[in-house]
From TrEMBL:
UniProt GO molecular function: sialyltransferase activity
Main location: Golgi
UniProt GO BP: pollen germination; pollen tube growth
Keywords recorded for this protein, A-Z: Glycoprotein, Glycosyltransferase, Golgi apparatus, Membrane, Signal-anchor, Transferase, Transmembrane, Transmembrane helix
InterPro entries: Glyco_trans_29, GT29-like_sf, SIA1/STLP5
Protein name: Sialyltransferase-like protein 5
Membrane topology, from the record: Single-pass type II membrane protein
GO cellular component: Golgi membrane
Location of this chain's protein in the cell: Golgi apparatus membrane
Length: 473
């Protein structure tokens, strides 16, 4: 009896708390409903036009997936969101050890966000430069330190030490420009490349991007081509730079993650241009070096064709064209995401899975349609964030800087003769006037401003650097 009473007594405050809590939740609910009613009516007129454009665009994307998606279908959720579904009966045998689940057979995407992000890449600089470190707040102290492995400190307290590490691969300004090339091929390493003979077609592109240790030689020539222009490498592969770049002294090496004392020693003896990738860490969408190669290519090419990125849904392992299969990240998610990107006009997928190759791209929404969807997505996003007005290419510039002279080219005094005498800095010395017309027009339209991402995964935070020096160097 005693115990029962005391427990009832101790329960009473809890009941009161619950009631209070419920009342609080209820009033918050009322307030938020009221405020959404207010702002809702004010916005709805302005928003409805954007929503109409985006809904039309969604239907177009849905059609494109139906026609080009090899069985994938798109279910529209609203004007921004859709779900890509693999055909019923697809065998999901891919076990994701990290999340301890079998791969799901459907993926939800936000098309508005995707189109904002990927159209942005077309205007972006994706190579790390000195001007970026100078302009970005704490660029040298914090950010530079993150790009150097085994620095011995978490920040660049000693700036000259960090400069010593980076000088070798740090150009003063962007060595590459948006729209520099018309057509680019990005070649993944999938084993499906051996089922086709895309070699010649790949080589016909203005620039070819490959990744990691992908071999390029007579043995694989008919499958992957022989042209070598850019290679994006992760830290593990960077160790074998000398062997990878043997016989290809003009190939530009872009290190994806961090530089390192040992890499620097190697680079000092190499004739190749070598730079660091400057890009965000994408946590959504497909992962891996392949995605970064697409970002890199998109930052300098009008048309990006991808080869060797597909796997059959039934695979339980990644195959590689040059080695035995190995476990990797999940292929179904990549397959779906790349399909979305194709239907957003970002890339073109080439794959043996397309038995009758459709080299006709009328299923993909037109440039004009994409531009209007992009503009609508941007306006909607700004309105929802309560930021009206100004919608130019600089809306996302969080930090501005100005550079009024050409800085030093990359390099260090202790480079070997091979590097000193090589053409490694030819891209840095390239004059604006010798670029393709479209690149020059873009530069002029942007008023000589280069856009860079801050690190992290934010669409919105850009570092913007205005060049006011005379373009002829
Ligand atoms: C799915 O794949 C697994 C592993 O390869 C296999 O054991 C199973 O029979 C397959 N199921 C179907 C329905 O094909
Ligand atoms: C900073 O680094 C430079 C280059 O390695 C070195 O010469 C100098 O002694 C360092 N300064 C300090 C205060 O440690
Ligand atoms: C580079 O390739 C040539 C033949 O193509 C070979 O003889 C040489 O050993 C290679 N060098 C390195 C460092 O791999
Ligand atoms: C990209 O650059 C073009 C100029 O070439 C500009 O008109 C457009 O607004 C820019 N778009 C973005 C998303 O920055």
């Amino acid at each position: 009896m005693r115990t029962a009473k005391s427990s009832a007594a101790s329960r009473r405050p809890a009941v009161i708390l619950i009631l209070l809590g419920a009342a609080l939740v209820f009033s918050v609910l009322i307030v938020s409903i009221q405020s959404s009613l207010f702002t809702g009516s004010r916005r709805s007129v302005a928003d409805s036009e954007e929503i109409r454009v985006l809904s039309d665009f969604q239907s177009r994307v849905q059609q494109c997936v139906a026609r080009r998606g090899l069985g994938l279908t798109a279910d529209i959720i609203d004007h921004c969101k859709l779900v890509l579904k693999f055909p019923e009966g697809t065998n999901s045998t891919w076990y994701n050890a990290q999340f301890k689940i079998f791969e799901p057979l459907e993926y939800k995407y936000d098309v508005c966000e995707a189109i904002l992000l990927w159209e942005q890449y077309r205007n972006m600089t994706t190579v790390l430069t000195r001007e970026y470190l100078d302009v970005r707040p704490d660029g040298w102290l914090d950010y530079a330190a993150k790009r150097i492995a085994q620095l011995g400190a978490d920040k660049c307290y000693n700036r000259s030490l960090c400069e010593e590490h980076l000088n070798l691969i740090l150009p003063a300004k962007p060595p590459f420009h948006p729209r520099q090339f018309k057509t680019c091929a990005v070649v993944g390493n999938s084993g499906d490349l051996l089922k086709t003979e895309f070699g010649q077609e790949i080589d016909e592109h203005d620039a070819v991007f490959r990744d990691n240790e992908a071999p390029v030689n007579e043995k694989y020539a008919k499958h992957v081509g022989l042209k070598r222009d850019f290679r994006l490498v992760v830290r593990g592969a960077a160790r074998n730079m000398v062997a990878i770049l043997n016989g290809s002294s003009e190939e530009v090496l872009i290190i994806k993650s961090v530089t390192h004392k040992d890499f620097n020693a190697m680079i000092k003896e190499l004739p190749n241009p070598v730079y660091l990738f400057q890009g965000i860490v994408l946590r959504r969408g497909a992962k891996g070096t392949g995605m970064k190669s697409v970002e890199l290519a998109l930052s300098m090419c009008d048309i990006v064709d991808i080869y060797g990125f597909t796997v059959d849904p039934g695979y339980t392992e990644w195959t590689r064209y040059f080695s035995t299969p190995r476990k990797g990240h999940n292929p179904l998610q990549g397959r779906a995401y790349y399909q979305l990107l194709e239907c957003l006009g970002v890339i073109r997928i080439h794959s043996p899975m397309r038995a009758n190759r459709n080299q006709e791209w009328s299923d993909v929404p037109s440039k004009k349609f994409i531009r209007s969807a992009h503009a609508a997505a941007l306006r909607l996003k700004r309105q929802q964030a309560g930021q009206e007005g100004n919608l130019g290419p600089f809306v996302n510039c969080k930090v501005w800087g100005t550079v009024d002279q050409d800085g030093p080219v990359s390099g260090s005094p202790d480079m070997g003769d091979t590097r000193k005498k090589s053409n490694y800095n030819k891209w840095e010395l390239l004059r604006l006037e010798s670029l393709r017309k479209e690149a020059q027009v873009h530069y002029a339209q942007m008023g000589g401003v280069s856009l860079y991402k801050m690190d992290g995964n934010k669409l919105d935070d850009l570092v913007c650097v205005k060049h006011t020096f005379r373009s002829e160097s």
